[in-house]
Structures are given as C-alpha cells and as structure tokens.
Write a structure and sequence with these properties.
Elements: H1 6-28, H2 34-48, H3 55-70, H4 75-85, H5 97-114, H6 121-125, H7 127-146, H8 152-176, H9 183-193, H10 195-208, H11 213-218, H12 223-240, H13 254-260, H14 265-273, H15 278-290, H16 293-314, H17 321-340, H18 345-352
Helix pairs in contact: 1-2, 1-5, 1-7, 1-8, 2-7, 3-5, 3-7, 4-10, 5-7, 5-8, 8-9, 8-10, 10-12, 12-16, 13-16, 14-15, 16-17, 17-18
C-alpha cells in the first residue's frame, strides 16, 4: 500500500495529537479523586503504547524514549525555568522537562512530515510508521503527566496545561498548511502554533515552583510575544542560512513574505522555485537583504520585545529578573543583527535600547 501524501499524513498526525491532548484535559477535569485521575491517565497512556510488530520498531522507539528522558537542550525548558525562577525556585522546573520533551518529540515527527524535510524519521521508516512513533511519544507524555511530582489543584492544572498545549499546537500547525496570504494571517498562524506550547512551558514551570494555579495561568500572557520572538529568530536563520529550509513555502517565513510584498516579488518567486541551486539561493538571499527584509524582521523583533518587557512588569512577579534578562539578551542579539546589516554601531545601540 502506498504511503499517504505528506499533507494528508500530517493532517492525520495533528488530528491524533489533538485527540490525545484532549484526553489529558478531560482527565484533569474529572470529578474523581486525584489517584483515580492519575490511574485513568496511565491507562490511556498504555493504550497508546507502541505495539511493535517488528523488533526494529521496538529498538527505534526505545531510542526515542531515551531521547525524551535525556531532555536535550530546548528553549521551552529555558522558559519553564525562567517561569519557576519568577516564583523563587528555577530548578523546580526540571521535573517538568520530560513530559514536555515527549510532546516536543511527537510534534517534531509530524511537523517534519508536514514540511517534507529531506532527512527525518518519516524518510527512514515511511510516514505511516512515523505517525505510530509520534502517537507513541504522545502516549509517553500522558504517562509522564500521570507521574508528575505535583499534588492537588497544581497537578490538575499542569495536566490540563500540557494537554491543552498539545491540542492547540496541533490545531495551529494545521493552519500553516494553507500558507499565509498576508501579515495578519502569518501572525495568526504563529500565535496558534507556537504560543500554546510556550504557554504550557510557562505555566508548568510556575506551578512546579509553588505558584498558585491562578498565578501560573496569568504568566501565560507572555506566551504570544515569546512565541513571536522564537518565530522571528527561526525565520532569520531559515531565510539567510546555508539551506534556506523555508523556500518551499516562502509565505510562511516573515522575511520572505515581506520581500514578496515588495517590488521584486516576481524575481524572488522565480529564485525560490530554484532555491535548491546554491547560486539561485544566494541571489534570493541578496535580494532579501537588498529589499530590507532583515531590517523589517529586526524592527518586528524590537516591537515584540517592548511588548514583552511591558507585560513582564505588568505581572508584578516576585522575581522577574530571569525573564527581564531574556529581554536584554534578545535586544543584544537584535543589535548584532543591525550591525551585520550595515547599521552604524552607535545607531544600532540606540535603536535597541528603546
């Protein structure tokens, strides 16, 4: 039987992710004692466990579980730690990393299918088997949520946050397949696909540090600016890096979308169509820079940073220092980009200090 087309396979993957995320949300809201709720979630996780037909699959899934347990470096963990730091105990967030890692692993598998990445799990084993592994990773997340070292309303709030993050991220990822028609549509997709997982990291980090569920939930107001900053940074790397991985869907990249709204749109469309050719890619990147796409991205970054700083101060957190340091770090990165694009150092420093 032939494998389904990537777009169709990705839709199946996101549909399953939404359903699995909703399981955690529903269990967290069950009017039963906490022990029963945890057992219910563990049972659901077992139903999603990999039933390997081949030894090769069992070995491969064991390696996926090992990667989840290792919790490789990830900006979402940094934000969870910063959220915990805001309530006085940064390292309390560490137990939250593993269930987040399981969600991220499953999301990455499906996202690679959607983006038709040339080197990914689906290329190695086929899309159908890759989707089975993705569901297995989400099942691991449910298992780990059931075991979280939180109690009472805090455990229920964390289970709900992790389930909601998966469900809403999956829904947002599906929106991306339509492509952005304009800047409003672009930011809507970013907010829908990235914001929910950022919100999850912030909320569970705060809960781990002992924040009341209402205080932890309030911290999620930072998720949209943080998600936008992540997207802007990724888009700069993708548009101007050695591989320009967004060239197949240029309207999903902020720099490319900006340039395609300018006077050289037809020229760029032709170059993007040949971006696998290094010479065409180089010409496209030169055009992006010439048309001010990088400057526009830095302007967007500075605007969002100002919104983020204002929101952090408005929350009146007990210890906002780590979050404010992140703002300062991002401003320094923006200043460096401005200098690289030819802006005089003194002007670049003034622009990023606003």
């Amino acid at each position: 039987m032939p494998f389904p087309p990537p777009a169709e396979a990705a839709r199946d993957g996101w549909r399953a992710a939404r359903a699995i995320g909703a399981i955690a949300e529903r269990v967290a809201a069950l009017p039963v004692d906490e022990a029963t709720a945890r057992t219910t979630l563990s049972t659901a996780a077992q139903e999603l466990g990999l039933r390997a037909a081949m030894r090769e699959d069992a070995v491969r899934f064991a390696s996926i579980r090992a990667r989840i347990a290792a919790c490789p470096t990830c900006v979402f963990y940094d934000w969870a730690r910063d959220a915990a730091s805001a309530f006085g105990n940064a390292e309390a967030a560490v137990p939250m990393f593993e269930p987040m890692a399981a969600l991220i692993e499953g999301i990455r598998i499906v996202d690679d299918i959607q983006d038709e990445e040339p080197s990914c799990l689906a290329i190695e084993v086929g899309t159908e088997r890759a989707l089975v592994f993705a569901s297995g990773a989400f099942g691991v997340a449910l298992e780990l949520i059931a075991e979280l070292p939180l109690q009472g309303p805090s455990w229920r709030a964390a289970a709900n946050a992790l389930g909601r993050g998966l469900r809403e991220t999956a829904a947002g990822q599906q929106l991306e397949t339509a492509g952005a028609a304009d800047f409003d549509a672009f930011w809507n997709v970013v907010d829908r696909k990235t914001g929910p997982l950022v919100a999850t990291a912030l909320e569970v980090g705060a809960l781990a540090a002992g924040a009341a569920p209402s205080a932890a939930a309030a911290l999620t107001t930072l998720s949209l600016p943080l998600g936008r900053l992540l997207q802007i940074g990724d888009d700069c790397l993708d548009a101007l890096g050695a591989h320009a991985s967004d060239w197949r869907a240029p309207r999903n990249n902020l720099l490319m979308l900006y340039a395609l709204s300018g006077p050289h749109a037809a020229e760029l469309e032709a170059l993007f169509a040949r971006a696998a050719d290094p010479e065409a890619l180089h010409a496209a990147q030169v055009t992006l820079l010439r048309d001010g796409a990088l400057a526009y991205a830095v302007h967007a970054q500075l605007t969002v940073l100002a919104q983020l700083a204002h929101a952090i101060v408005g929350l009146a957190l007990p210890h906002p220092e780590a979050l404010l340091r992140y703002v300062q770090h991002q401003r320094a990165e923006a200043e460096m980009l401005l200098r690289r694009s030819g802006v005089e150092p003194e002007l670049a420093a003034r622009l990023t200090s606003v």
